[in-house]
Give the backbone structure.
Amino acid sequence: MLGLQSETNPEWAERVRQNIPLALIDHAHCEKKAALMAISLLNRYPEKHELVSEMTDLAVEEMSHFRMVIMKMKERSISFARDPGDNYAQVLHSRIRSKEPQRLLDTLLVSSLIEARSCERFRLLSELIRDNDLRQFYSSLLASEARHRNEFLRLAKLYFPHSEVNARLKELEEFESEIVGSLGTEATIHG
Ligand SMILES: [Fe+2]
Ligand SMILES: [Fe+2]
């Protein structure tokens, strides 16, 4: 699915079913961090007009997702709390090379993978959690995460040769799949 090389272990969905409050708190932080990443990208590359335009739209959309998650929490009397942390994203980010222009390419590709994995996990939640309203909520978010994944790939191919994008994407996809296989203890979105 969406280029991902491995599927999420169904036990993950079971963990989330047991701890919906933690999953929602973590989900809200994921949306906020996606908005922050979009702002950081447009801040770092102001001369790249297409990127600035896309990241502006993305930051607004991710914050609207953040607001929706906060509303779902409110309806369920769940209070917002500190970020439980996202090992998965941190380890993936550690693979971003520090020198330009590779840093831009890697940031776009890592972002595309995080969007793809979030999309895959939202699909599982839309099928497996008991709360009907939350199932519909996750189902409604699927399409936007898939679109974001495609948007990051489009930007990568706009600024870099396709062969370079495809070769690096393959490496990062393999790495992403290893990370996902080695996680599996938390009821968080990427846990
Ligand atoms: Fe989002
Ligand atoms: Fe997204």
Observations:
- Helices lie at 10-18, 20-44, 49-75, 87-93, 102-128, 132-159, 162-182.
- The chain has a mean pLDDT of 95.
- Residues 31, 34, 62, 65, 145 surround fe (ii) ion (ligand 1) (CB under 6 Å).
- The longest helix spans residues 132-159.
